Each structure stands twice: as C-alpha cells, then as structure tokens.
What does this fold into?
Amino acid sequence: MHNLRIGLFTSLAMMAFAGNSLLCRWALKETGINAASFTLIRIISGALMLLIILRLRKDNHLASRAAAGSWPSALALFTYMAAFSYAYVSLPTGTGALLLFGSVQLTMVLSGLWQGERLHMRQNIGLIIATVGLVWLLFPSIAAPHLVESLLMLTAGVAWAIYSLRGKGASDPVSITAGNFMLATMFSVVLSFIFTSNAKVDTTGFALAVLSGAVTSGVGYAIWYSALQGLKTTTAAIVQLSVPVIAAIGGVMLLNEIVTPRLVIASVATLGGIALVLIERRKTI
It folds into this structure.
C-alpha cells in the first residue's frame, strides 16, 4: 500500500506540473488575461491554498507561516513564475516544458559540479548530449521557438532549480512553501503595478490562473512533497523528465498544437542525456 500511495502521488504530481504549462499556455493563448495578471493571481491562489492546507493540518498561525519563508527563496519563486508566464505568451506547451525542465535538471547537475561532485565518462557524455539538445532546439531556423521567450523559460528553469536547492532538506516544506508564496506576492504586486496600464483579466483567464495557482501549484506541490518522502533523490529527478512529454500530449489534445520533428529529436537528446547523467549518478551513490 505504501508503494502504491507513493506511485499514485508521484503520478498526480507530474500531471500537476504538466498542468501548470497547459493552463498557463491556454490562458495566455485563448483568453484575454496578460502575463503579469496571470502571475499575480496564480501566486495569490497558491498562497491561499497552501494556507488552507496548513489550517487543515491545525497549523494556522499566519505570522509564523510568513516567517517560515525567506526573501531570497521568494524572489526565486517569483522569478520562476513571472518568467514562466511571459515565456508562454508564444511558446508551445511541450517546447516550454522541455526548456523548463531541461534547464532545471542541468542547473542542478552544474550546481553539484560546483560543489565538488565529479562526473564519470558516461555522465559527461549525457551532459553534452542534453546541452546539445537544448542548443539545437533554440538554434535559429523556421522551426525554432521564439528566442526571447525561450530565454525567459530557461531563466524560469534556473530560478526553479535555485528555489528547489534552497529548500533542500527543509524540515517542513509545506509551511516554508506557504511562507515563500506569501512573500512572493509582494514582488508580483509590484510587477502588476508596473504594467497596470496593460492589465487584462477576463473570467476564463482568471479561472485558469486560480486553477493553476490553487490546484496544480498549491495542491500539486503538497502532493509532490508527500511523494518525495518515499522517493530517492535520483528517482525524483528522473520522474520529472516525464513532464515535458505529458505537457506536449496535453497541448496536442487540448490546444491543437503540433509536435514538430525538431521538438521530438531535441526532447530525446535533452531528456535522454539528463537521464544518463542521473542513472549513472545513482549507480555511484
């Protein structure tokens, strides 16, 4: 039963992560909401949902929850969410998810190298393949995604990796995440104020932003943290490589997007190369 629960929670978390890409792209492509407004509503909704979860857990002291977060982590969380939203103004769902999770994993691997970890020959080959996959996806051509939005999504991935690394080993991840969401709201309010003249929100866009913040972010993160208790670090990293595939399938089914040969080849190279690094690392632990 324990393994079944971990497997179920892991599957739900991966669908939630892919859901964030789908909901954001859907909102920015099909509704009137703009990126700044989507980011603000998503962060506020996520904070409220996490506070509800803490309330159900009989942990309802608001001040202590805000204190559980930190400004650097909140800034990384906000940077991820804001860059994520602006990137999906034009990026297809699957392409955005590949750039996001590819840069997340590469940043974490590079962080390990910076801290003194050493890669074996097969890991080095995997890292080179993954990097080439991302570079080739971005290389100028008719089929290449928009460069500015692509760089924004890579930035989002780096920010999420930094946020994850800062929270590694946290004694109470849900409380800390709730605190970081509350603090990140401040940054998002400033962003919305700067772009207040361009603020656009309609009913459907608002609903999708709330769904992204409350369900696929707030509940999704809580489920993921529960799943992490039964997963090895390497396994947790590897399963996240499924997210771009799920997101791409969702984009085709729900948003009528096209999966190009370029995206397929780049996905195989990037995700396969990262998996090679992670699997080899697992053998050496």
